[in-house]
Amino acid sequence: MDNNNSGVAIRRTSSSIISPTNSTTSNIPVEDDEYGEDFDLSISSHKRKQSGIPLEVAEGMTGGRASTEPSLEQIADDEEEGFISERRQSLPRIQSSSRLSSFPRPASPIPEFDEIFDGESRRFRYASSIKFLSTRNILILAFITVLAIVITIHTPSQPDPGVDVSRPVEADAPTEDGESHFEDVGPGLEFYTEVDHVRYYKSPDKMKEMKSEGPTPADRELGGMHVFKNVCLTNNIDAMSYENNPTTSLRGLIYFTRDQEHNSQRCVPCSNSENMDRWDGTYEDETVVKHKCGMNGLHTMYATSAGDWSNCILEDENTQLMKKFGQTQTPTSVTSVHFFQAPTFLLQFNAFDMESALFDMLMTYLPFWKKYEMNEFPFTSLISHSVKGCISHSHHPFCELLHQMAAFWEVQDLSWESNENTLYCFKTLYYNQVGYNRNLEHEGHVTKEVFGGLRENLFNRFGLPRRRTVEAREKDAAIQGQDLLGTKIILYDKTSRDETHWTDMEAVITEAKSLDKYKDVTFVVVKDFDDLSVAHQARTFNEADAVVMVHGQHMANAIYAVDGTSFVGVGCSGTVPLIGNPRFMELMDSSYKHVSKCNEDNEDDSEACTVCQDDDHFTMTLPAFEKMIDDVMAK
């Protein structure tokens, strides 16, 4: 470095200490000269901006300019003594070179660099500028900036673990209570809004193509419950107006596959004329629709997509065939789809018939209930179109029974919307097969232990007064100093309903009460069970030693009766009701007697039978009534 250079060149040193012996000019030694001309140019450019000196002149001054500043030590000392103002006035001005003299210095309102910063501050700022403005550091900073941008662009955001961001969703869809997810990821193939594990599609065309699976057994040891994957459900609106046996227990199952895409009747379900107890069974209507029919309560239809099914059922030939079969389905025209992601249980039964509901649904579900309550339910939600809100708020007798027995514990009850254009689909659907154990023919499926446990549960939940077993009642009577003498008989004639009824029941009861042999018998006549709450119906059956009634759905209240109760079904038909099944009576530790139309040779009234005016009205003679009551009391 040239020691005769009149300019002051400030350079970085390893120690940053200035020699105190140099009071005029400062030639600061450095360990390297890495800044070179770039640094001088930066200093000159900055000086030009502050003083107004043309850039050309400033560049000319880089190598040989007059000394303009005292040493940094002197300025620091003067500041300490308070003489910085006088010192600034005595400083020499710039000594121009011949090149500088041709450019007179213009007056500038901008203060001099020297006037703003003292020497020590200037030393700090110069050193910082050196580090920041070096070519190498600028390149490093640029590289880091580019690298950060690339990482930001290519690093995916971390979604909520429960959110599927593999497909886009619509941001303008309505929201509900719960966690909403509005994603916009991937190609424009599938669009939906997901709220609480339900995907809402505004059109079936917005769904990707699905492929159904199943049915597979829900439990390898227990029959009657099946699992389907990626299927949709429809409702049979004709079934509720069937002339002989209206029902709410029929559904259509849309099964997605390309195996049937060339079958023009793929979307038409089979009729309900046969007992379809097996999914892989062969049934008569298959020759018409050219596909498998499904099973009881769940009639199969085939499609490649939700949109394909909707278009198929609107074809006139298919519409007419569905009407002929009594299988008109809703929705009739699909404009939106709800796709449930959580495993869902299909609760299906005939809401018009409590007795059928008990045997068609509960006698299949009971062993699963017992197993799931001890471990964990494999489904988290439930849906039923048989009765809306069945386990959440309905007072339907069968729904109340399910609620009181805690049939589904904390499983969420889903509701169908009133919109008839919405299709309901399920990623995983559990189907409790309707009628699988209707006649209790699957030995060991419902054991006496399981059924007794159910009844004990119901007795406790409804607060019923009489204990279930004879032994328990005898023990209670002994403690209370009472006996079990006397018989209470409940009778129901159904005269308040437009069904088969016993026209002279109260008259014959009045005659029987006058007989001494019935002095310890209490006859209780029920006008209409529908006028009683579920709890009141349960208590009425619980207090009875015998129940005599016209055939009907209220026979299902037998589940609340105590062991040893005698049941008598009265009517014109010889058809025994479901509770009259000997297997059911064995589970109840009870008995059943069926009383029907008298034979023509019963002239001496020795038989307990009815006199039928027509299929819907009958009477009973006093001798026949006595015979019936005597048989009941003998048991």
Structure description:
The chain is an alpha/beta fold and 635 residues long. The chain is 31% helix and 16% strand. Helix 18 (582-588) links the parallel strand 19 (566-570) and strand 20 (591-595). The longest helix is centred in the middle third of the chain and has 21 residues, at 354-374. Residues 1-106, 121-128 and 157-188 have low confidence and may be disordered.
Number of helices, counting only DSSP H or I runs of 4 residues or more: 19
Instruction: Catalogue the unreliable spans.
Output: 1-106, 121-128, 157-188
Terminal residue distance:
129 Å
If you compute it from the alpha carbons, what radius of gyration comes out, rounded to the nearest whole angstrom?
A: 47 Å
Query: Total number of β-strand segments?
Result: 22
Helix content: 25-40%
Largest sheet: 14 strands, mixed
**What is the beta-strand fraction?**
15-25%
Determine the structural class based on helices, strands and strand pairing: alpha/beta
* Mean pLDDT, all residues: 78
Shape verdict: elongated
